[in-house]
Specification:
The protein is mostly beta strands. The chain folds into 3 domains: 61 residues, Roll (SH3 type barrels); 59 residues, Beta Barrel (OB fold (Dihydrolipoamide Acetyltransferase, E2P)); 58 residues, OB fold (Dihydrolipoamide Acetyltransferase, E2P), CATH 2.40.50.140. It is 2% helix and 54% strand. It contains 1 helix and 16 strands. The longest helix has 4 residues. The chain starts with a strand and ends with a strand.
């Protein structure tokens, strides 16, 4: 069992018989009442998001997950194919299961596959990745007092906000937790 004081972003718990991934949580203390925790969940199987509020100290069923290193091979429509580098098994995850994680992986990338009862449910990626800018408007110099930004599309289809000096073809480091530009990469 896991209480609300022990939860973390990305943790998977069982709630109402469904596997739920914790996307965000907010601890709220209201005047005279007891503290509450507002949690944003993503259903692992259906991909639907829900927000629920619990009393501080509420407990959730912890889920025993298995992890294995896999290589991303290719996507076929909504299905993303991976390969276990030791057993050569090829698990498949769909677009709903991956969510926005699909914007941070390239073919042949090595990631961690999370399984529950031998069923693939999610992948775990590093906190930051390097992506190539496939399109952005040219930066126009002007009388900006602070760092001006513009929109850019990466080679994986992710749209992010970048500084004016970033051009098409540049490699940039992107924070996978916030989908934000970190720095220019080599």
């Amino acid at each position: 069992m896991v209480s609300t004081s022990e939860i973390k972003r990305g943790m998977i718990v069982e709630l109402d018989g469904q596997l739920q991934k914790i996307l965000e949580y907010d601890h709220q203390k209201i005047g005279r009442g007891s503290a509450q925790v507002k949690i944003n969940f993503k259903n692992i199987r259906t991909g639907s998001n829900t927000v629920r509020t619990f009393q501080a100290g509420a407990k959730f069923n912890d889920v025993r997950l298995e992890r294995q290193i896999v290589q991303y091979l290719y996507n076929d429509g909504d299905d993303y194919h991976f390969m276990n580098t030791e057993t050569y098994e090829q698990p498949v995850l769909n677009e709903e299961q991956l969510g926005d994680v699909r914007y941070y992986i390239h073919e042949n990338d090595t990631v961690e596959l999370i399984t529950f009862n031998n069923e693939p449910i999610d992948i775990e990626i590093p906190p930051s990745v390097i992506l190539t800018i496939s399109y952005t408007e040219p930066g126009v110099k002007g009388d900006t007092a602070t760092g001006a930004t513009k929109h850019a599309t990466t080679d994986t289809g992710l749209t992010i906000t970048v500084p004016l000096f970033v051009n098409t073809g540049d490699k940039v480091k992107v924070d996978t937790r916030t989908a934000s530009y970190v720095e220019r990469a080599n």
